[in-house]
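Explain the record.
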Amino acid sequence: MQDLTIFLQALVAASIFFVWVVRYDNIVQEFNQYGLPHWLRDLVGILKLTFALLLLLGIQHASLVMIGSLGIAGLMACAFVIHLRVKNPAFKMIPSLTLLALSLIIAVINYRLLKG
């Protein structure tokens, strides 16, 4: 199970870094399209990148994984709600739902590993 959670942690972290660093122009466009303020975009970006980094650091320091995974899960739940509010098509909701599910799986597996 530990190999699975390490793989999922790396996958979720890489996804977050890719979207918020490589495809940042797309993020700016989406936040503008949804009428969300710039400060919120910046705060969400800082939080997502921080939580993604905690997932990576959690590979060596298991205590950090819960913060990172639950933080990302919370942000992805908020993203899903925003997609519903702006009435996006279902295919635009898939990434946030997928990362939400993966983050919760990571949290559950790591909780069980920590409890032994």
